[in-house]
Structure formats: C-alpha cells, structure tokens
Amino acid sequence: MHVVVIGGGIIGLASAYELAERGVRVTVLEKGSLGGGSTGRSAGGIRGQFSTPVNVELSRASFVIWDRFEETFGVDIAHRRVGYLFLAREPETADRLRETVAMQNAHGTSSEYLDPEAAREHCDGLRTEAFLGASYSPEDGFADPNLAVQGYARAAREAGAEIRTKTAVEGVHRDGGRVIGVTAGGRIDADYVVNAAGAWARRVGKLAGVELPVTPKRRRMVIVDPEEPVPETDPLTVDLDVGSYFRPEREGAALVGGQFGADPAADPERYRKGIETDWAAGVVERAGEMARYFGPETRIKRGWAGLYAVTPDNHPIIEETVPGLVSAVGFSGHGFMHAPATGKLVTELIREGEASLVDIGSLKSDRFGDERSEERNVV
Length: 379
Ligand SMILES: Cc1cc2nc3c(=O)[nH]c(=O)nc-3n(C[C@H](O)[C@H](O)[C@H](O)COP(=O)(O)OP(=O)(O)OC[C@H]3O[C@@H](n4cnc5c(N)ncnc54)[C@H](O)[C@@H]3O)c2cc1C
Prior knowledge:
CATH class of the largest domain: Alpha Beta
Distance between the termini: 39 Å
Largest sheet: 8 strands, mixed
Strand content: 25-35%
Bound molecules: flavin-adenine dinucleotide
CATH superfamily of the largest domain: FAD/NAD(P)-binding domain
Shape: globular
Low-confidence stretches: none
CATH topology of the largest domain: FAD/NAD(P)-binding domain
Number of strands: 19
CATH architecture of the largest domain: 3-Layer(bba) Sandwich
C-alpha cells in the first residue's frame, strides 16, 4: 500500500510516522519547508481543558505520546507542564467552566474549578478582583513545536517514509469515485491520499472535488519583557471573556496573544506575517488587565502572525471524505496538541477502515448542517 500525505506540518508528519511505523509505504509532499505553515508559528500549548468530550478525548490520547516524546523520538521538546488557567469574568462563563470541569473529570482529566483567590496560588500576579472563577489543570502546558516537527520527521524517515520538501501538489486524481494519486511535478499513484494541508486544506480539497468548510484566520502573538518578570512556573493563563492570554517564556519574559474584534478570512498565500504596533500595544494592555506583570514599562521584543484553520464549530474534520481521500483538517487553535492522536486515527482509518482510538463519529464533514456542539474553550 502507498499513501501520499499532503502537508509537512505536525499533522502530516505525525500521520506519516504512524503509518510508516506500521509498515505502510508513505510519501510526504510539502510545498515549502517542514513546519513552515502554522505549526512553526504556534504557541505550542498542550491541554486537556476543552468544553466538548471529543476534544478532551483527543487530548488524552495525545498526552500518552507527548508524555513519552523524548523516550520515543529522542528529542527533548522542552515540554513544560505549568498548567493552563482559564479565567471567567461573567457569571455564565464561570458556570460553564464549572460544568466543563465536571465533564473533563469524567473523562479522566485532573482539572478543577477554583475561586479567584485559589487561582492566584498558581499565578501570583493575577488581578483576582476582575474574575469570578477559574479552571486549572496541572497536566496542561506547552512544548516547542519546531522540535516536535523534527522528532516526528526524523522518526518517520527512520521508519521508511520519504519526505519531499519544496514539492507542491498541483492536482489530485480520481478514478470514478476513488482518489488514486496526485500530481506534484510528475504523477504519483497512491492507494490513499491524506489531506493534511492546514490552512490550505480547502484548496487541496477542491483539487479532489470536495468542499471542506475550513477557513484560514490570522492569529498574532508577541514576546515581551514585562515590567515585572513572569515566573516560569506560571500557567498559560486565558481571559476567556476578553480573548487574551499569556504564558511564561524564559527569564521573566512572556508570550502574549489574543483575538479581539473583526476576524476576516485570510489568504494563506498573502497574509501579513508581521504584527501591527497598535495591536501589540492593545494585547499587552489586555494582559495587564489580567495580571499585574504587564505595566506600562513592558517592552515588546518581537511578534508574528500565523493562521488557524477554523471550522464553524472549532472541531477538526477527521474522516475518509471520499474513497481514498482521508482529511485531517480544520484543527482551529488546537492542531499542535492533537497531532499525536490524529496521526494514529489517520492510520486506523487507512489500515482498518475505521477509527477506534477515539470515537470520531462527530468529526465528519457532513455535520455542519445539523445543530452542532461548539468548542467554547477557545484560545
Ligand atoms: C498564533 C498561533 C498560535 C497557536 N497556538 C497553538 C497552541 O498553543 N496549541 C495548539 O495545539 N495549536 C496552536 N495553534 C494551531 C496549530 O498551529 C495548528 O492547528 C497546527 O499547526 C496545524 O498543523 P497542520 O499540520 O495541520 O498545519 P500546517 O503546520 O500549516 O501544515 C500544513 C502544511 O501543508 C503544506 N501545504 C499546503 N498546501 C500544499 C500543497 N498543495 N502541496 C504540498 N504541501 C502543501 C503547507 O505548506 C504546510 O506546511 C496555533 C496557531 C497559531 C497561528
């Protein structure tokens, strides 16, 4: 069996590794460089605190791999388990956090609901007066996405996968209903093609004649030297009602991000990869409303933008869309952390015809006409 994977981000590489490990011949085609799409621009957050059971399950199945990454792949991905702290300003948000903690606990996470004073034990600079409640889990944290890409790519190659960079897929071929290969320079036949094209997933879907509701949305972050150093043990802290977040970097620095206001679709070939000065000032100001570290003397060091590949309900699409074409797309803001489970699910779909690691019946692309359960813990 030969599988062509379109996209050399974390999703394509995790899929290639899992397939090659099970003896499947795999070719990864990446139009640029490995991790050069969204993966290398992400914050590297890894968490189990989601608002829907399927996202919690994708996290738990991925934790198993993240927790043993160095032993398995021989790469230290700087995985720091400092926790995630979600903060609620509004009563409805606090109620929802309380309910989602109960659901998460039923699925095996160790998250807990906290009042603001208890939350401050995890984040000393927290402005407790601004918040009604919080949820926290010590299992959560973040890792270095570029190192994870290297680990997966090396292991995939060692298991026999061929990885070609600077190789764009320009066409996807079908014979009757079935996808049978791609054109990337020349023609390449395949028993299965995996669409792991991130923010380009809709375009790649169109090459195969399928419509996938995946929209690229620009997201920005800055690295700052705060007025007061952020302790390295502080969690990734999210102001849910405002839409801003920060996490510690090294030596007191912090990464600050968020999304407020208009949110148009972006063109993945043309979006602006730098950040605007007024946006940077605004995001730091909002972080300052969350925690006292970010006073007026905070210095902005650098920043960048990348793309979320968003679906209407903030859940991915993982399915065999038409015979021979597996889609693993639309991961919204959580594709880095869910990549390990996704690689295994893609492999199950191809080798066994169905997935068993996680029940992904709700992640099909035809779900969007129905009433949907939307992911609400969005960062
Ligand atoms: C600012 C920011 C912060 C984020 N923070 C987090 C976080 O904390 N935690 C988390 O889990 N997620 C986070 N994400 C989301 C995460 O980055 C993505 O969900 C994840 O990287 C998706 O991986 P991917 O492999 O699907 O996509 P990508 O990494 O974009 O890979 C897709 C690849 O496909 C290639 N490609 C496209 N079209 C073709 C073609 N025709 N032929 C060949 N190759 C093609 C592209 O060049 C690209 O390299 C963040 C994203 C951003 C932008």
